[in-house]
Amino acid sequence: MRRTLIVPCVIALSLCCLAVQDATGPSIRLAVDLTDAPRNIFHATVTLAATAGEMTFVYPKWIPGNHRPSGPIANVTGLHFRAWDQELAWHRDPLERYSFHVTVPPGVKEVEAKFDLLSTDSAGGGGLAASSNLLDLNWNQVILYPDKAASDAVEVAASVRLPAGWKFGTALTTARASGEEVAFNPVSLTTLVDSPLIAGEYYRQIELVPAGEIPAHVIDMVADSAADLEMTPEDTTAYRKLVAEADALFGAHHYTQYHFLYTLSDAVGHHGLEHHQSSDNSTGARTLLDPKKHFLDAALLPHEFVHSWNGKYRRPAGLVTRNYQEPMIGDLLWVYEGMTEYWGNVLTARSGLWTEEQYREALAATAAALDTTAGRTWRPLEDTAVSVQILRMLGPQWESWRRGLDYYPEGELIWLEVDTIIRKQTNNRRSLDDFSRHFHGGESGPPEVVPYTFDDLVRELNAVAPHDWAALLKERVEATSQHAPLGGITGGGWRLVYTDKPNAFLGAIAEEAKITEARYSLGFILDHDGNFIDVVPGSPAYRAGLGPGMKLVAVNGRKWSSDVLKDAIKSAQQSHQPIEVIAETADIFKTYSIPYDGGLKSPHLERVEGQPDLLGDIIRAKTGTARQP
Ligand SMILES: [Zn+2]
Which residue in 342, 467, 466 sits closest to 414, CA to CA? Predict the structure, then answer.
């Protein structure tokens, strides 16, 4: 999953093998009529094996990649259970609201469940799943399965009926297709839920490896207009290089084909959701064409691709569950998401989707946000990971004090630090690449899940370069601290500095989200209308009494605007006089005096002369020009 980038408050067992097995248990037929997708209703018909007596059927609750009970149960409507065309009574379990109890009459062998899914929660990330011209189908949202069944053991034969003329992309293989009816080869419930489908009137597929090469890698794209699918030749080359760079990094793959499913639309929810053999990516309509949007979202596909190795194949033991009703434990999400954020951003640079300067500006923005997050003085990083269920969908108000999903960006800083320690200790002969080649690579083959614990991680790191990794990592994730772990930046030959020159990444976010960023000077972020989105505890604005819920009205006697505010900050640097602001709360206007004369401040990385540029080595491409299909 990808964190949101819009508000930059920090912005986005013992080892054993669990193969994704062939299903041997109950079988399900699932037919999904998607012809009403343009008004966001998916019609599902689920045929389930049944025996007489009370049976319990469940709707998937804990969704992989969401790491939380995000199955959109409230959007299940028009539910009926039938056998032999007779209506069967059902009732919802009063404690477990994802469970439905049905009394099955004697002699009945199959029960048919029909319901409509209101597709208003795309991939668990919020926002519509469909528009007039496209749709994103996550199978967990349109199925019921027998209570207590293991998802590996349930076989599902799924089919869809698409709106007329729409084309589709998915990692599922087609058994037969006629007109708009498509039937897929039966797979386990695990594989089905792991294989979303996108479809649309405007569809394009781009091959990323030469035809016939195994495994195939393709981008399947849908958009609301043909123009939005016009990927530049430079991007096509970069995505081909992404595949080559991931191959060079991990040395093996755990899929038989890979589909980047890519939706480009302003009408549906935006997200990235990882799977073994595909990823479900959704961004704004003009992402491929607008340089600013491109900069902000360039790391999305690399991030979700890395998850095929880190998160799907190698998975923290607490996130390996038997089915979708078992709760998940997110204590190692700083590895699952944090290392994915690290490798995703590094591969974005290695593949050429970002320039080296763009990578550094994004990293500076991440480091600065974490370094000024006040909540780090009370809340350890690990607590943000185990709290994913309660933190994921919150608004940004007081996020600096509460902390958000910091295991993503701070995980990136931690793995950069680990990488630079390995490199320094081995005279740059070994690196985190060597760790990942062993930990995430191994033998190529079909999807498989290999769980790990903290101790497994430490043991594998020690095999690459001996160090007290357990102590370092425990300090990083279990302790509170005043400052972010910036050792990877300094160890990489750079330092975090603040200047009056705008940070390019933060500038793009500010323009895109229409916000005003004064976080590193006065200590706040404003929305387009002047509402305080967040105020950093301890900052000049905080000490002056300002906070979210207030609205900025005037600065030094002038009506507020972004430029008026910047001018006031610059002038206070010369005059050393406090900045006077008027803020409104519930029709009450008050004046606040902010003593601050430090000028405009924006984060950047500055080279430390005389130190080796390990950061430069880390983001340098490992392969030559990508092979052309
Ligand atoms: Zn992720």
Answer: 342
